[in-house]
Design brief:
A four-stranded antiparallel β-sheet has the order 1-27-26-25, with no helix packed on it. It has a four-stranded antiparallel β-sheet with strand order 2-3-4-5, with no helix packed on it. It contains 29 helices and 29 strands. Among the domains are: 2-301, Methylamine Dehydrogenase, Chain H; 523-601, no CATH class; 673-778, no CATH class; 807-834, no CATH class. Helix 10 (475-484) packs antiparallel against helix 11 (488-497), helix 13 (524-532) packs antiparallel against helix 14 and helix 25 (707-726) packs antiparallel against helix 26 (732-741). By secondary structure, the chain is an alpha+beta fold. The chain is elongated, with a radius of gyration of 52 Å. InterPro entries: CNH_dom, Vam6/VPS39/TRAP1, VPS39/TGF_beta_rcpt-assoc_1. Residues 16-286 form the CNH domain. It comes from Gadus morhua (Atlantic cod). This is Si:ch211-266g18.9. It holds the Pfam family Vps39_1.
Length: 835
């Protein structure tokens, strides 16, 4: 607060003259004295009270004086500017005077027996308290009359009161009360330790809150609901009066005025004014303190100047705290500019102290242009370009801050400089993600350089994410940086993010071929193939031969995945690809598998080529053996293709080989199952393959004709196979094994006809037990199913009968019914009898 010279020179030398109370209204000041005099003073300034800065601007001119009567002190003055009324509490009466002439207002009779009063400005209502009747009255004030709206009784004599909206806070002899006169409710609060002579303080702070003098030298903040939303304020015991001048609380003592912050409740200033009696608010940002002979005006220093003064004293945290606390009382533009400047200075201070988390939060909160921080790093300035250097230092009006010498730190302490680099990367990443990154070009270039220099695994991933996402990195500034740090894989990603796909792939090809060393991406070849699957056809043809020469199995994916991901749009022709893959047999085989298994192609040439490829590969794998074994992944694929495909044409090629199982499949697909089994039994000598053939042939029949035909074919084939085994004594063991493994599929009567008479029951015991057990099981299951079906049928029949009542009363003995012309149901016999 700024203390101006006294507004009122020393009063008359009459000992009866002394100031008792004050009231302010704009530039008008009203003084109530101890000898029943009301004095009207006018400020000789054009500024509002809050703008008074120099003593010369705070001088007052006396206008009028009115003596109300005998020498008794005036207790209170309250103005009603809307009606030009000045209300005077004198000799237990409230009298209305004109604010400018100080003449009594006609028609407004004095309100008797009033000990204190307050005015509700918003609703133009007067609240008076009466000690004689122990009640509070609410008056509606008009130009020429007032009217009592409500009376609220009190448990004790009232001492002082304050009003905020419809809530009145009243101090009685020993405690405080809250009264809502619209609702007619009263809430008792805590006691106070003030005597009647001292008077208990009740100070409205705005927003439905009151400041009360609680026991223990505490200023208690109480809401109109009776709750507290702020902690109490510790203040001295001898507080004569208090007022709120946001963001401060003023506590008047006999020897001075203490100024406390409303934001953190700390003492901020002490103004020495001796023999002070009380105070009165002077506008919204000032206060008048009076002694018995003089009035002192104290105006609030503009909030912006307070903030700047704290910054100049390097009390940056306090400046930010104060600025955020008074944001609602400042123009938005002024607040934003001050906040940016102070956040920058506070951030730089934390930056110098290596409190990087706090510095980052301040820079982000201050909406700082990242180029200001980038320019602090000498080796990062080239990324900004000639027009990219900006600095808030020297332009701000709130002070300056020296910045750490990072160039010297880089030379002398690499570990410490690394911490500053980590901070730069973290800050720029956050600023970029929050959209406060300023010019993206500078930020992205610097981020790329910092990530490239850091070199750790985590930073390598951050570098990839940067260049993989849409970015504004300039190639002329970033390519040399990545090449210098051997980040060739990321260099390719940078080319790709800028649309230069051919150059990106060429860079990765050099890594795969060993021309560039970059261990950060061990799977660069797979990455190239994956990238080619999304490129145009022309780009794919440029690198197709190189990819297949490296690895045919992986390289062929540039064709297969390309067709899947592009949904046949801008894709290749199968004939064109097969022609190209002619010199790459393994890739050709994989592509044919793709066409048949994935694309479900029914082209005969593809199926034939794939079958031949399987045959050649199988024969090549077992070229040193007389008869190739049954196992083998390629041979399994060949057999599956021969079983499932209907489009191949390779019988001659297969029949000329020693692949007995494959020959049998070809014979079986042509319908010659008996010859197929002979090949497996007599030439291939593969009993297990013969059994598997019988079941697979039946399975294929099931797909084509249904399970009935499949079961019949299985029995026929198994009986044929059994006959072949029984024709040779050397195959008796295979015959017994066949019977034991397939007991449920052999009809017992037919088997007994085929078995040699010399065989004992013990030899075929396994088959007989299994067959009889299966037969018995089927019979029992069939009976159970029939019984369940009959029960279900009867249940439905009962429900149907209940919903379809018959006209006759006979029981249900037959299944024949008729419906008459009238819609009735009858037994057939009943209908005949009725006729």
């Amino acid at each position: 607060l700024d203390l101006d010279s006294g507004l009122l020179p020393s009063g008359p030398k009459d000992n009866k003259y002394c100031i008792q109370c004050l009231e302010c209204s704009d530039r008008n000041i009203y003084v109530g004295t101890g000898d029943s005099t009301v004095q009207h003073l006018t400020l000789d300034q054009t500024q509002a009270p809050a703008q008074a800065q120099a003593p010369a601007q705070a001088q007052a001119r006396e206008c009028r004086t009115r003596k109300l009567g005998p020498s008794s002190p005036i207790k209170q003055l309250r103005s009603v500017p809307l009606l030009n009324h000045l209300l005077v509490l004198w000799e237990q009466c409230v009298t209305a005077l004109n604010m400018f002439s100080l003449e009594p207002v006609p028609g407004l009779k004095a309100i008797q027996h009033s000990s204190c009063m307050e005015v509700c400005v918003h609703s133009v209502e007067l609240i008076t308290a009466s000690s004689r009747r122990k009640l509070v009255r609410i008056h509606a004030v008009w130009v020429d009359r007032w009217e009592v709206l409500r009376e609220v009784p009190l448990p004790q004599d009232p001492v002082s009161l304050a009003v905020d909206g419809s809530c009145v806070c009243i101090a009685t002899v020993d405690r405080y009360h809250l009264v809502d006169y619209h609702a007619g409710s009263m809430l008792e609060l805590f006691p106070h330790d003030r005597s009647r002579r001292q008077g208990a303080m009740v100070v409205p702070t705005g927003g439905g809150e009151f400041l009360l003098d609680a026991p223990g030298s505490l200023g208690m903040f109480v809401m109109s609901t009776g709750t507290c939303q702020r902690p109490p304020l510790p203040w001295p015991r001898e507080v004569l009066a208090a007022a709120v001048c946001f963001p401060y609380i003023l506590a008047l003592q006999p020897r001075g005025l203490s100024v406390y912050s409303l934001l953190d409740h700390t003492l901020k200033q002490t103004v020495m004014i001796y023999s002070s009696l009380s105070l009165s608010m002077w506008g919204s940002e000032g206060v008048l303190v009076f002694t018995d002979r003089q009035i002192w005006a104290l105006s609030l220093v503009p909030l912006q100047e307070q903030v700047q003064a704290l910054v100049i004293c390097q009390r940056l945290d306090e400046a930010l705290f104060l600025l955020d606390g008074v944001q609602s009382h400042l123009p938005q533009h002024s607040y934003e500019e001050l906040h940016k400047d102070i956040s920058y200075l506070a951030g730089v201070h934390q930056f110098n102290q290596r409190a990087f988390d706090a510095a980052k939060e301040l820079f982000i909160a201050g909406d700082l242009d990242p180029r200001e921080i980038i320019s602090l790093y000498p080796d990062m300035r080239p990324c900004l370009g000639d027009r990219g250097l900006v600095s808030r230092r020297g332009e701000t009006t709130v002070g300056q801050e020296e910045v750490a010498d990072l160039a010297r730190l880089q030379r002398e302490d690499a570990a410490a400089y690394r911490l500053y680099l980590d901070f730069l990367a973290d800050y720029l990443a956050v600023a970029r993600a929050t959209g406060r990154g300023g010019p993206r070009e500078a930020v992205d270039c610097v981020l790329l350089r910092v990530y490239a220099e850091q070199g750790a695994a985590g930073e390598g991933e951050s570098l990839r994410q940067l260049v993989a996402s849409p970015n504004a990195c300039r190639l002329d500034r970033c390519v040399s940086v990545l090449e210098h740090h051997n980040r060739y894989f990321v260099l390719g990603m940078l080319y790709q993010s800028h649309g230069n796909h051919v150059k990106a792939i060429k860079t990765w090809v050099k890594i795969a071929d060993g021309h560039f060393e970059d261990p950060s991406c061990p799977d660069v070849y797979e990455h190239i193939v994956s990238t080619l699957t999304t490129q145009d056809i022309d780009v794919v043809w440029m690198f197709a031969e190189w990819a297949l020469q490296k690895n045919q199995e992986v390289g062929v994916q540039i064709f297969t995945k390309h067709q899947q991901e592009n949904n046949d749009q801008n894709s290749f022709g199968a004939e064109e690809i097969l022609k190209f893959l002619k010199n790459y047999p393994q890739a050709s085989l994989f592509y044919l598998e793709f066409l048949i298994n994935k694309e479900k192609s029914e082209t005969e040439g593809y199926h034939t080529d794939l079958a031949l490829a399987y045959v050649n590969q199988t024969l090549e794998a077992f070229s040193g053996q007389d008869e190739p074994p049954e196992a083998g992944e390629t041979r399994g694929k060949l057999q599956e293709l021969l079983w499932s495909s209907m489009s191949y044409d390779v019988p001659a090629r297969i029949m000329a080989t020693g692949l007995h199982v494959e020959r049998a499949i070809v014979l079986g697909r042509s319908g010659d199952h008996t010859q197929a089994l002979r090949v497996l039994v007599h030439e291939g000598r593969e009993p297990h393959a013969a059994q598997a053939y019988c079941h697979r042939a039946a399975q294929e029949r099931s797909h084509a004709s249904g399970p009935g035909d499949a079961a019949g074919l299985r029995r026929t084939l198994l009986l044929t196979l059994l006959s072949m085994y029984l024709c040779s004594d050397a195959l008796a063991g295979e015959a017994l094994e066949l019977l034991g493994d397939n007991a449920l599929h052999f009809p017992p009567g037919r088997v007994l006809e085929l078995l040699p008479g010399a065989w004992s029951v013990g030899l075929v015991c396994r088959y007989l037990v299994g067959s009889l057990r299966e037969t018995l099981h089927r019979r029992r299951m069939g009976g159970l199913q029939r019984a369940l079906a009959q029960a279900e049928y009867l249940r439905h029949k009962v429900l149907w009968v209940r919903t379809r009542p018959f006209s006759c009363c006979q029981s249900l003995t037959t299944t024949g019914f008729i419906r008459t012309a009238g819609g009735q149901l009858l037994h057939t016999s009943c209908n005949t009898q009725s006729h």
